[in-house]
Please model this.
Amino acid sequence: MVLAIRVHQTGGPDVMVAEDIDLTPPQAGEVRVRHTAIGVNYIDTYFRSGLYKTTLPFSPGNEAAGIIEAVGEGVSDFKPGDRVVYLHGPGAYVEVRNVPADKLIPLPDTVPDEVAAASLLKGLTVQYLLRSTFEVKSGHSLLFHAAAGGVGLIAGQWARHLGAHIIGTAGSQAKVDLAMAHGYDHVINYAENGFVPKALELNGGRFDVVYDSVGADTFPASLDVLKPRGLFVSFGQSSGPIPPFDIGILNAKGSLYMTRPSLFAYNATREDLLASARELFDLIGRGIITIPIHQRFALKDAAKAHQALESRATTGTTILVP
Model:
């Protein structure tokens, strides 16, 4: 029997219950992975709440790291004992799981399991945001909301490495201080007086791009800090979805661009996924990016992890430990 966190009906964190389940041997093309660390991400709450649809019952979770215990027929790229990490979900909030081999990413010796589980989804998100959605180069100016979150802390370090001028926003002085220690040139406490005037002052003008995972609370004000033909990137909605709006506002505020990208669209092929992961793990291995793991919960306490995440009580990354 395997310990799993299961959701039988969508709702708040309390709908997640710990259960023992049976696990079949890996089928053709699968491997069995014993998890050593499981990543917790805001997207997990979207599946749990029902905002994102999936078949009930299910286990939340999209990423985990661990050790291969067995391989199914036809698997030749991996063997028992290999350290791996993956993005494949939902389904990761379990002790042991069968995973399609083509979803696995081998782990270099320079990246510990906990760091891999804490960074893969968030780090690959930053990779496509900064390297593809908008190709950040030296001299670009960026505004990044939720700078003290797991994605935000990676983004600050990566953007600094690319030579960009990056300003963040955060909701408390403690979060401001944390983000400042992770690459940002300036961080604004938007809980005090908003962010638009201060952002324009600190940047000396408007920004090339705004990255927003907050949603309702930061829109449409974010459009007011963009240069003409600037880009607004919406990649999350921790405060609720952006409400319907008149698309003419993009014209009125300077022929702006707006996009709602996803990690999986930018990593649709295995080749893209492995290349993105190699770039992320290279920067981590060289110490250019550090991954602050500020919250650890036992797997059985996944509901507490979601409560902390949704109350915005967390900083950096959160993991579950089987």
Observations:
- The longest strand covers residues 30-40.
- The radius of gyration is 20 Å.
